[in-house]
Amino acid sequence: LEHTPAYKSPLWTAVPRKYDVSEFGSIIFSSKMQKKSKTLGLTVTRYYFLFDEYLAYASSNNVKKIKKVLSLEGLKVWLPAKKEECKKEEKHVQIGFFKCNKHFALRVANEELLKEWLGHLSKRCIMCNPSHFYSIIEPLGKGSYGKVYLIENKEDKKRYAAKVIAKEQMVSKL
After folding, report:
1. Which residues are registered as beta bridge partners of 136?
2. What is the pLDDT of residues 13-68, one digit of tens each?
C-alpha cells in the first residue's frame, strides 16, 4: 500500500482485492467487534485483525477478505468512562480511537476481550488514559518541563517513575 502523509489520508485505506495480505505480517490478535454505522446508526459486526503496524477489518474471519486497513502510526487509544458511569443496559465495552482529528469507537463483548485488545494496542499505540493501568503513589520531583511521579501498575504492582509534561509548556517552548 502506498504511504500517504497522515494529514492528507483518510483513516482507513481500502485493500485492493488481489493484494497479498501476508505483507502486513503475522496476525497478533483478532476478534469480532462492533461499530455503529454513521449513516444509518445501525450496529455493524466485523472481524478486526491486529498486525504489527496496522489494524484491519473484514466482514468474515477470513484474513484474505480484509477490506480496509488503518496504520497504527500516531493512533491514539482511549478508554470509556468508568463502568459506574456507563448505562446499565449496555453490556459491551468500548475502545475509542483518534487520529488526525478523526475518531471512532469499537465495542467488544466483555472485559476479558477488552483487556486483551488493550494489552496488544498499548505496545503499538498512544494510550490516552493511563489511569486505567497505573495508580499515582507520590510526587518525586518537579522540573522545568513537568513533574515526576512514582506510579504503580494496577495489575502486577510493579513501580515506575513517570514524567508528566504539560502540553502547553512544550508548545510554548518550541
Report:
1. 151
2. 898 877 778 888 899 999 999 988 777 878 899 999 999 999 999 988 888 889 99
> Which segments within the chain are labelled E, that is strand?
13-14, 29-36, 43-50, 54-58, 68-71, 76-78, 93-99, 102-108, 126-127, 134-142, 146-153, 159-165
Closest CA relative to residue 111, chosen from 125, 130, 91: 91
Closest CA to 137 of 159, 166, 156, 165: 159
The answer to whether the CB of 135 falls within 8 A of the CB of 158 is: no
User: Residue 34, SS3?
Assistant: strand
Strand partners, 98: 76, 103
Nine-digit cell string for 165: 509534561
Specify the pairing of strand 126-127 against strand 76-78.
parallel
Q: Is 100 in a helix, a strand, or coil?
A: coil
Q: Which of 7, 8, 71, 63 is nearest to 30 (CA)?
A: 63
